[in-house]
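Checklist before submission:
- one chain only
- standard amino acids only
- sequence pasted in full

Submission:
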Amino acid sequence: MQPAIFDMVFPRPTPAERMTAIADAGFSAFQLDFAAAGLDSMPLSIPERTIADLREGASAAGLEIAAIGGTWNMIHPDPTLRAEGMASLRAIAAACHPLGSTIVTLSTGTRDAANMWRRRPDNDSPGAWSDLLRAMKEALAIAEEHDIILAFEPEPANVAK
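Returned file contents:
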């Protein structure tokens, strides 16, 4: 097993400086959040130049991009926001292999519209579970299409803990 760290733990002005700090801390791998590259954490598109810069920066620092963050509220009460999250997952999945990674991390979400890490009683509703199953079916199809692995970050307040 190889320990890795979330890149947002090392806030730096540029991705290269962030990756150097990760390597200097003794890590050889990290989880990428696209916010570290100046994009949204869940971007709807990822420029090829950004992918190339991130891949080159990781290589120069001697790092592996072990996983990529793909966390959005999979059961948000607003179906439009759920659909945007899925579109972002598709963009992230397409960037995985060019970045040298095969893992995208997910959280299952909550019915709380303002904070996806806040517990809501209606997380336990049949509707929340149905929405999660529909989202997972679509996410799994994306994962299969792009030959990637989906890994869940456990969150005590989410619909699936």
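Reviewer check: The radius of gyration is 16 Å.
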